[in-house]
Amino acid sequence: MMLVAGIFSIYRCSNTVDLYAEYKDITIVYGLLDISDDTTWIKVTKAFLGPGNALDIAKNPDSSNYPNKLSVSLTGRKNSIDQPPVYLDTITIRNKKAGDSVFYYPDQLMYYTTTAIDGDATYSLKIEDASRTIKAQSPVINNFQITSPVNRISFTSNNSDIEWRSAKNGRRYEVVLVFNYTEWAPGYADTIALQMSWFLGVEVSKDTDGGEILRIGYAGDGFYSRVEAEIPAIDNVKRWAGPVNVLISAASQEFHTYIEVNGANGNLLQEVPIYTNVDNGIGIFGSRHTVNKPYQLSVQSENKLVGMGLGFQLPTN
Length: 317
What we know:
This protein is mainly beta and about 325 residues long. The chain has 6 helices and 17 strands. It has 2 domains: about 5-140, Immunoglobulin-like (Sandwich); about 145-250 and about 290-315, Immunoglobulin-like (Sandwich), CATH 2.60.40. The chain is globular.
């Protein structure tokens, strides 16, 4: 995660903390609401200050975790009426991998709730400790529809589109194709399921009202070039094409702005910009949602795949 304790020191050219700087308690928040999640996670940490190398200090959980449990709540507002607040509990997740960030692992202290997110509500986040209150607000991205392809997906043309209608409260859309296939070769105990991903790009809607027709193009030759580059030739292998999943991930205006600002091109002599929509703190509180629609390959596309010499077989039934 980008928004974790020590964010200021990492952005500087030097990784040595100023021993004479005055410490200020700065709460750092990272939270994204998704109507499809069965659990909502909010990461709450604090900036730290200490002697020595900031990267070494970051490896200590006590440097960025608050010593006490904070009051963290979500309140949805729908049709001008506030819903009852939902108070989040804490849990330690123990599957963070080394290399995900410079901070401590494998444990992460998180705030969470299993209460369902209402896609028609706008949510307010409130974090309270003994001395102050941190607030943020975000609408929720509701479901949206992929309109093209309609039935099967084809890679026989170099002028094809993925098309969809924008979601209410959605602004940024990232499109990925995932080609699923199964594989068997001598020595395998059974067939194995494999995937190949193809990132098509990003589209940004004009506004967050929803209903806008958006599309992103792709060239069929690009699919087969990727297959040839990423799927190795194996002696006596047999492969069978499965569905191609079209995944379109939407980000709210707040999340889109955060990505744009913090992903801005710069150099080592330039201060990295920081975007936040968190009052009395720093971080991002927004919304995201992904639609996932599977398509079978067109007959012509599958025939071309079989002819590539990578062991792909036509279905027998």
